[in-house]
Amino acid sequence: MDIASSQVFEAGTPAACRSCQARHGVVCGALSNGQLKELNRHSLRRKVGAGTEIIAQGAETSFYSNIMRGVVKLCKVMPDGRQQIVGLQFAPDFVGRPFVRESTLSAEAATDAEICVFPRSLLDRMIAETPELQRSLHDQALKELDAAREWMLTLGRRTAEEKVASLLHLIATHAEPQTATSTAFDLPLSRAEIGDFLGLTIETVSRQMTRLRKRGVILIENSRHIVVPDMDELERITS
Amino acid sequence: MDIASSQVFEAGTPAACRSCQARHGVVCGALSNGQLKELNRHSLRRKVGAGTEIIAQGAETSFYSNIMRGVVKLCKVMPDGRQQIVGLQFAPDFVGRPFVRESTLSAEAATDAEICVFPRSLLDRMIAETPELQRSLHDQALKELDAAREWMLTLGRRTAEEKVASLLHLIATHAEPQTATSTAFDLPLSRAEIGDFLGLTIETVSRQMTRLRKRGVILIENSRHIVVPDMDELERITS
DNA sequence: ATCGCTGTTTGATGCAGATCAAACTCGGTG
DNA sequence: CACCGAGTTTGATCTGCATCAAACAGCGAT
Lengths: 239, 239
Description:
alpha+beta; four-stranded antiparallel β-sheet; homodimer; 11 strands; 8 helices; 239 residues; DNA-binding
């Protein structure tokens, strides 16, 4: 399950990363053609199944990734097992903590995903040489900081109903296919994961979902597929 | 009360910022002598009283600051008045959101403080020209991100008692004068502010403080001055 | 001193969400 | 098909924190 396993960089075939050449991803967009070529020689595109741990909490990291497809959750767990999701990342986000060897959180694929994996040492060097890349990662860090703080407000001050509505709004906003007002999307998270993101139990999440359904705010096609007839209505509940 | 008032930069006397020359602060440590001189010509050291709003939520910001002394709280408030503190900043932290015109949160002096104020346009230019400054601000953003995520765990998954212990631990860690195991410090926050940081009410904060006192974990010399006989004991409660 | 104001503590009661428990759904498997 | 197990929903009850209410402490102004 460990993406960092040595065969990735040593025994694996370092295939060119076509997506990166196409300038997807936070990292590749900021590089020169020469750098991109070098990065491609040492990077590898990987498909990972839902639930795969990409980075372990407390472990040394030897690589960074770009998310090319799918959703990755960032998790913190306490010694007694209590758990909190502290961020959701979507393509084309960057995963990894520049400059610091040890990760204070775990990153896990929430859905099946494709990621583009770079050796840490190489990317650290490129960051140091490329102000534009530094800037690009700085931007992402600030974006994540805003998201984290917005979520602190949700965790600290919103009711269970508002929390669930906020989560649905967040997912809907990041899901691609949207019509004018109505939106349909797949939830990348189970009820348990939603609970861990919102600081609630499974049961409370479930109850709030059915309350929203009974009020006509959402349709639950199945537990993972949601339709929102009117996004404004959902946003209103968010507060 | 508005620090950004025009007289600061137009009518005020732009005194040299001695602290910055001494390389305090996140910004000044990363600049060349020439840049520092230019920055000094346009920056101003200001004393602000506790409660002064430095940046208003939703307002355009025309300046950044370095905290030279005191504590600054970062706040988000909801339309209905519910409020969440999303960060505490101590000297020599940087205050302001690079690259973005409008602030999504307010910054307010929690204690009497001294800050070093720079015009936004000038510092933005220096960031663009100075990779080391970019790096320095990037580092701070990552540090704040780690802190925000750690606090998300506290908000989502810790009990009231653990929350209060976590806050005391946080403050104790950032307060300067510490003996080997025992620590004494001033709380920079009122009970109401602590509640807004922890997602609790004033009453619950107060009750948990007296519980910790009765158990001998802390001494409350007065409501703002705390002694922790054994930091390990406090840390244990934090979980 | 006495007043009045603001912040804090303490007490009594209520309720949102946790916990405990059981039924239901659905996709996979022998 | 029946069976199983994991995930989800629903119901009954409990509890930690919120809410409502009142006393208390500190402190500047008169």
